[in-house]
Structures
1.
Amino acid sequence: MGHGAGDPISGASPELEEARSLGELLKQGWKPERTIVYCFWDGEEPGLLGSTEWAETHAAELQQHAIAYFNTDRERARLLPRRRIAFA
């Protein structure tokens, strides 16, 4: 598999399903205690371009409000996505 075939957007389908499920919960009256932001990056292989630009643009907001970052990504040899979690 070449760059981009299984990475960086390999986790998009399960993330979209998770977002859809949260939308269903919202329709039933559930509200999260914090804002949830879903992001999908492009330009990872040539140097993390999308995520770096977004984080730099939103750095102050992230430093003040972010409590967790979940990166669902799959490396070429893995069958299931791995989840990297960073806490502020």
2.
Amino acid sequence: MRPHTLRRVKNLVRRAKSLVRRSKRQALSLLVAFALMAGFAVASSQSALAAALTNLNWSVSNNQAGAAATNYSYSFKTATTGTIKTITFTVSGAGLGGAPAIVVAYGIGAGTVARAGQVITYTVTAAVSVSAGIPIFVQLSGMTNPAAGSYTTAIATNTAVPAVIDNGTTPAVTFAATNTAATIVVAQSLTFTLDTTAFQLNMDPGLPALADQTQPINLTVLTNANSGYTMTVSDNATGLQSSSSGNPTIPQVSTQMSTAVAWPAAPAHATGYTVTGTGVGDAGFAVNGAFAAGTKYAGFRSAGDVVALSTTATGATANTIAITDQVAVDYSTPSGTFTDTITYTATPNYS
């Protein structure tokens, strides 16, 4: 064989060996990838193809909303043979409480239990293989019920991976409300009475009996205002005035309530009023002290003065406010008809 032909043969042999080695590596990589994909598919299919638990039930020892130290009992039957490491009980909604403890566990190995939010997890100490169709019963103590409403529990058996073996949802349990919301609406009310809507005094400065006269006016107030009421007395800005030439007036005995004075001795030319009152059963009732229990008199003001008040509701008995309107005339008082309008305003405070 010629030398150059021999070299070509050797080169072809080396290339052939290199291709064989490369093919082996590619084949090995393909095998590893296939194995990983197969393992992932198996693990994924365990969760995706989880079977449905049967005969699911959930009962509670006390169905009052918020009740503590309640026992929860769960029962179900497995659908698939599998090695169970945990059983999760996921209660719907929110508000589950308590620190669960195992009372009894049948059909499953011994274990521990804990709660995190709405999920109760029973962990088998040593994972155990449980056949299909095996009934399992778990009773837990120390639970605190959520608020009133209807709830279910999603139960799942799991491997140590973890991967779901079987799952299902219990029928609903209703937690009942333990209180009644009572709303009573009481209307705001004030009843006011006035026994005199008009009066006339016929006066004569030459006759002592007719020169100084009084007119009693009685008011009553009955109210359920929590902070009581105020009683204000006011009159026209012009006061007790005549329509005669020059529009003369009978002067007020004092400029305002705070400067109330004793009624002047005869002969006098004045008008004014004093106030007394009673508040049976109403500890917050009071007449303004300026009147000194009816011995001092104030002049009327158009701006008004608070003559009596109460800081509480009156109760069943009305407050009585007695106003004595007094007028005295002498020969300085022009003859004629003098008029005024006196206004009484009861203002409740419902705060």
3.
Amino acid sequence: MECALKACIAKLTKAEDFPIKNSTSTVYIHDLKKLATVAAVDVTITQLAKGDQAFGDNWDVVTHWSEESRYDRAVDQRLAELMWMPWLMLGVGFCNV
């Protein structure tokens, strides 16, 4: 999900804008809610979450992930699949990458 949001950000970035100004507060973060805002898809995600309970539940699951979570051995395969499967199936259509 983080990579998908960063792809949306890249799509918004012009070549002459690289490196991205204030990148420490934009692309070099792992907070999915902040990345969604920078990628200009936060409103779309909020609307999707309101209209689709499963999408909302899945967004809630992935936004609780942190970069430290990847080392958490308590995360089982089912939870890991919940974190990426719905987004893969969505095809990152909300930013048309």
